[in-house]
Design goal:
- The protein has 3 domains: 112 residues, THUMP fold (2-Layer Sandwich), CATH 3.30.2300; 128 residues, Alpha-Beta Plaits; 108 residues, Alpha-Beta Plaits (2-Layer Sandwich).
- Helix content is 28%, strand content 31%.
- The protein contains 10 helices and 14 strands.
- The strands form 2 sheets. Strands 5, 6, 7, 8, 9, 10, 11, 12, 13 and 14 form a 10-stranded mixed β-sheet that branches.
- α3 crosses α5 and α6 packs across α7.
């Protein structure tokens, strides 16, 4: 039985035709393997780590060591040697949280490289209506393209995600990008003010070093006024959960139409009575894709911006997750209390004008 680096190669020097039965001669080829891997690390990275995959005869060998209580960790030996060679070739550091993870398979000398995503935090403003937040495939063809979607494969031509990610993918020479937003506005609502917080996850970037002011410029030029981003900064995977689960208060501006003339005094009284706890079942308009359950949310403020008989512009400050359209219409009694107690009302236009830090 050899190894511990083939017993310092002593046996191999005695008999050149002998292959170490433990490592299979892998240490003779370690430089060649490292060079082969280094050629595939043809992207920007500052740190790396090597993992070793156990399967087939190599895994059986590890089990043999354990069963016979042989104190030799060949897996770690291969990992350390390979990392040492790659560090010397690339000049990059070894890290437990690497930009590039190399998983080497001693069974057949194959390997896989995983590139760590880049995470960019920011806020987006959506200046026009009828843009979904994320890619929304056509319900009929599921993205294949049909007459209903004009062969685009999408329910809506544009999405905030695509408008932001397209230039970002090119900028980072990445495979893809995913937008993680703090909640989402309705497709027909604008997102104004200081914008909605988001994290953009850049998948398999070949470029990591980035001037985010330049990225901001490229995204905003590409969006041509439909969407804009601001406050871009480098972030982490953990920030995705913070953004998605954060209970940000929202401020809305709604153009509301009534079924009759409503006096300012009557409207002020109804709005005053709305402030407080709102019990809201899942709106009928989204029941086809969301579970029917009761949510309790809080309305903090409700005030009149403008009022013209049958039309009013109202401002609401609400807890995250409160449906404003249903707060106004009542949604056939599924939202209580609501604005439509003494008259019928519906939201004609809706804007999110602020997402407040929690």
């Amino acid at each position: 039985m050899l190894c511990k680096r083939c017993s310092k190669r002593t046996a191999l020097e005695i008999n050149k035709k002998t292959t170490c039965p433990l490592c299979g001669g892998i240490f003779e080829k370690i430089d060649e393997i490292a060079l082969m891997i280094a050629k595939k690390l043809n992207f920007e990275f500052e740190s790396f780590q090597v993992g070793i995959k156990s399967e087939g005869s190599f895994r059986a060998l590890q089990e043999f060591f354990e069963l016979n209580k042989i104190d030799y960790d060949l897996k770690t030996e291969i990992k350390n040697e390979l990392q040492s060679r790659l560090k010397k070739i690339t000049g990059k550091r070894i890290s437990l949280n690497p930009d590039a993870l190399v998983v080497f398979n001693p069974e057949d000398f194959s390997f896989e490289i995983t590139i760590k995503p880049i995470y960019i935090y920011g806020r987006y403003i959506k200046r026009i209506r009828n843009i979904s937040q994320t890619r929304w495939l056509c319900g009929k063809c599921k993205g294949a393209g049909c007459e209903i979607c004009n062969y685009t494969g999408k329910r809506y031509l544009y999405s905030v995600e695509e408008l932001i990610s397209t230039p970002a993918i090119e900028f980072f020479q990445a495979k893809n990008a995913i937008l993680h937003g703090s909640g989402r506005e309705d497709v027909d609502a604008r997102m104004l003010g200081s914008g909605r917080p988001f994290v953009l996850e850049i998948i398999e970037p070949k470029k990591r070093k980035a001037d985010l002011s330049e990225l901001t410029k490229k995204i905003n030029e590409f969006c041509k006024g439909k969407v804009a981003v601001k406050q871009l900064s480098h972030s982490t995977a953990e920030e995705i959960e913070n953004v998605k689960e954060g209970r940000f208060r929202k401020v809305y501006r709604a153009k509301v139409v009534f079924d009759r003339e409503v006096s300012r005094e009557e409207l002020e009284k109804v709005l005053k009575d709305l402030v407080g706890e709102i019990k809201q079942k899942t709106p009928e308009r989204v029941l086809h894709r969301r579970a029917d359950k009761l949510r309790v949310r809080r309305l903090y403020k409700a005030e009149i911006v403008a009022h013209f008989g049958k039309i009013a512009v109202l401002k609401f400050e609400a807890e995250a997750g409160l449906y404003i359209k249903e707060l106004v219409s009542g949604d056939s009694g599924r939202t209580e209390p609501n604005l439509s107690k003494n008259f019928k009302a519906f939201v004609e236009k809706l804007d999110v004008i602020e997402v407040l830090e929690s």
